[in-house]
Amino acid sequence: MRTVRALFGRRARLRWLHLIMGGALLMPYFLVGTVLVGMAGGGQQLFSSVPAQLGAFGLALPMAAVTGLFALVRPLCVAAARALCGVPTAVLADGPARTRQARVRTAGWYTLHLALGGIVSGATLALPPFAVAVAALPLSPGLRSTWLLDGPEPLREPWALALAPFAGIAMLVALAAVAAAAGEVLARRAPVLLGPTPEDRLAAAEGRAADLAVRNRLARELHDSVGHALSAVTLQAGAARRVLDRDPEFVREALTAIEETTRRTVGELDAVLGLLRQDGEPDGEQAAYGPGLDALGGLLAYCGVPVAYESEGGPEAPGAVRPDVSREAYRIVQEGLSNALRHGGVAAHGAGSAPVRLLVAVRAEELEIVMENPLGDRAAVARPGGGRGLRGIAERAVLLGGRAGAGPDGDVWRLTARLPLAAPGTAAGTGPGTRAAGAERSGTEAEGRR
């Protein structure tokens, strides 16, 4: 039963059809080869000469190989192989063949397909009528008189006629076996010749890495913006609820802070969601959308915690920082404030506790950020499993070529970040992969402490 399925099952029939398609594609090249052979041999007995036909077949294959070098041949071959050869989708490459290696492999597959297809197609056209005629010899006196009258003496024996039907069936089975074997050869060679080349795999990996980088950046934007807003709003609302009857003026200020925080966050959220709704992938500049250090005043005014802010490098220094560094520095400060609200002594003792200290210093070659807040109850600081905030800070710093760290220092929690003002270098050890790995390690260590 397994043998019958292998020779005549659905997959075998589809592969047979695939081979016949290869024979049909071979015909134009074969006709050109026939013309060339006829011109070389004077056109004598061209179609009845086996050597002439073999010569035309031999000339057709190199011409087919040249056609297979075109880039658009690969997607057509891949589509046919997936549909008819039963080759798994994942092992075949998508898109045109762009590299030399991909084109050579495609040409090899195309030539192999047409060569095997030409042989199987020719046998499919010629052998079944002959096999049927042989099988019908015992039943047709006309066939016997035509075929056996001048044939060898053994073929005139009764036992030879009795075996003729079995011989005809054997020919058809042999044809099916040849077609199945040829289809299996194509199916086994498809992943090698039509599969992704090392260049294709590298391009796909780079595409996935770029897509992941954009998604991670957008995720960090949402985490820092929405997370900070929720922390600030929660703290302000809780403080306002506690003093609602005693201090209406404080409640009014808290509600104003909640209004300003939510309005700013809704604008940032709408911008990020707009990037996610785009048909194409946002480029790096779009994905880095967000406020910069010039908006730091509004953030500190309505963050829900008193902040002692100090700027070094001149009053206009933060505004002169490169835009991408300015955006990342703003997010780092925002996440630091969120951590102070959620985990520090500020959240534990309310808005009247010791203020957060923030230093933003523009040095000759780097931007330095230092933030300190009271540590509070150590049990309240610990978070099972950690969070994503400090990891995001580390990623932002390392991807710019800088560094960041956070941890307890006495009775305060200190967050530091140093961001280079110049573009990140391309020296060994500072490429994107190295920076991303460093960000992952730094973020994981910081989260474990926080």
Automatic annotation (TrEMBL):
Residues covered by region (Disordered): 423-450
Superkingdom of origin: Bacteria
The reaction(s) this protein catalyses: ATP + protein L-histidine = ADP + protein N-phospho-L-histidine
InterPro entries: HATPase_C_sf, Sensor_HK_TwoCompSys, Sig_transdc_His_kin_sub3_dim/P
UniProtKB keywords: ATP-binding, Kinase, Membrane, Nucleotide-binding, Phosphoprotein, Transferase, Transmembrane, Transmembrane helix, Two-component regulatory system
TM region(s), chain numbering: 16-40, 52-73, 110-139, 159-182
Domain Signal transduction histidine kinase subgroup 3 dimerisation and phosphoacceptor: 215-279
GO cellular component: membrane
EC class name: transferase
Gene Ontology terms, MF aspect: ATP binding; phosphorelay sensor kinase activity; protein dimerization activity
Protein EC: 2.7.13.3
KW Nucleotide-binding (keyword) present: yes
Comp. bias regions, Low complexity: 423-439
PANTHER family registered for this protein in UniProt: NITRATE/NITRITE SENSOR PROTEIN NARX-RELATED (PTHR24421), NITRATE_NITRITE SENSOR PROTEIN NARQ (PTHR24421:SF10)
Protein name (Swiss-Prot/TrEMBL): histidine kinase
Organism: Streptomyces violaceoruber
